[in-house]
Amino acid sequence: MKRFGAFHIAVLVAGFAFLYVPILLVVIYSFNASRLVTVWAGFSTQWYAALLNNSQLLDAARVSLMVAAVSATIATVLGTLVAIVLVRFGRFRGRLVFSSLVYAPLVMPEVITGLSLLLLYVAVAFDRGFWTVTLAHVTFTLSFVAIVVQSRLISFDRSLEEAAQDLGCPPAETFFRITLPIILPALIAGWLLAFTLSLDDLVIASFTSGPGATTLPIQIYSAVRLGVSPEINAASTILIGLVTLAVIAFSLATKRSEVERQRAERRTAP
Amino acid sequence: MATQRNAPPGRNTRPARNVRFGRLALIGVPALWLTLFVAVPFAIVMRISLSESVIAMPPYEPVFDLSAGFAALAEAVGQLDFDKYVFLTTDPLYLDSYLSSIRIAGLSTAIILAVGYPIAYAMARAPKRVQPLLVMLVVLPFWTSFLIRVYAWMGILARDGFLNQALTGLGLISEPLDILSTDTAVMIGIVYSYLPFMVLPLYASLEKMDDSLLEAAADLGCPPWQAFWRITVPLSLPGVVAGCLLVFIPAVGEFVIPDLLGGSDTLMIGKTLWSEFFSNRDWPVASAVAVVLLVALLVPIGIYQHMQARQLEADR
After folding, report:
1. In CATH, which superfamily holds the domain spanning B87-315?
2. I need a labelling partner for A10 at 20 to 30 A (CA). Which of A17, B58, B172, B272 fits?
3. What kind of membrane protein is this, topologically (chain A) (predicted)?
4. Quick check: B279 contacting A, CB < 8 Å?
């Protein structure tokens, strides 16, 4: 009954071509010898060499990586707390307000999130720079972490925790020795998601960053506004390559742990 | 828990109080953060939208002083100024921006649904073995920079870009088309950038579908096309609604795509807010634009939250 024919294959090929051809063009033309981006003039790696001398772009990349690493770490801790509260605490006073505040940054347009945070910083006279961007990124990424961790906590077998507690393990220790290791893959996935969202964000960073804290998207955006440039193609290709490697590594790692888990389950099964 | 209940009263109050304190701390830390960085900032936006624009830093008046206490707050309420909202209705720029955002986002959502449904359907039909790979192929572009994906289309849609080169090369057109810097380019950008947000929820709902329903329909003499229309489509409706909301809500407030792919006459409210803030430096008007945008999005956002809550219930 469940047919998968030539028509379905054609749809998938066309769909994936639409998704990947634009990205591939950027990669191919980053090796173009010509300054004209749409005319192919032979293979060259000169734009990668030019990139190494572009100190503005390199500085921006460093700032972005630091913002992303710090904000993803804080967002993972806070997002995990949020997920535990939402999944485990049932109904409590203020739950509706709490969950609305969690989901608000997810659905609010980025321009509003950025504007409101900037106005907060101005109101309390907080100098804009590294920390203002980082705090802004924690705030909008923690909701995404919460959702990822939440879905793992929902499918979690609570009898493991109950067994530990019945054997006299205090709640905090139960959390660190039983719960945390089991939900760890979700925490890693959440961290990676927060990291890439932070690395990718232009709008909120533009509102909340100050002098000395130019992130990579802000730098790329100001270059792109002047038109398509081969150097940006090279920078994009490096980013695409890094992300692809990270995603493949992560999916291989989770696949292996999944296989090991299944094997362990089969061993313990009667 | 049962052992605690049987323990002598003197020994069980402490842990109980500890548990309650622990709960409070667990809720308190994220609640404090969200209040400080989500609720308070938005209250400030509301307040500034009701302020006077002045040439100063910060460029609005009155500047409220949080340390001045309740009396100052009460006085500030007395100084509310609804001029900015009146201004939004008098200058057609704002109304046009809102309407044009909704039109562009709505049309793009419809196109994404039309493009995404066959892809999600084919994915759900694919052999179980390759399905995780297909999902990953849909997700992967989402992990690569949004800015770069929009930028890629600048090179494709330009007058001397790849699309015009390909079309003239094939002899389909003699004159290059002007696509870049038009609303069409913005819609192409939105369709491309948000396609994964539609395909994933659609795939999730189509993949869950019980095939025996289709078999039953076929056994009862229902032709495949009718079975698709009367069984598959209704059962995938939750995915359709979720996907449309996931695309429509962010597309309305989009800034990057209209700014890079659109022309000077492309009006979208995210771009208008941005230029009101950064170019005109009129913070009260920018705040008023933000408040009205959020009010306009409350209905779709409400539907989205409702769907999410239902999804969580269903997963449980």
Report:
1. MetI-like (1.10.3720.10)
2. B172
3. Multi-pass membrane protein
4. no
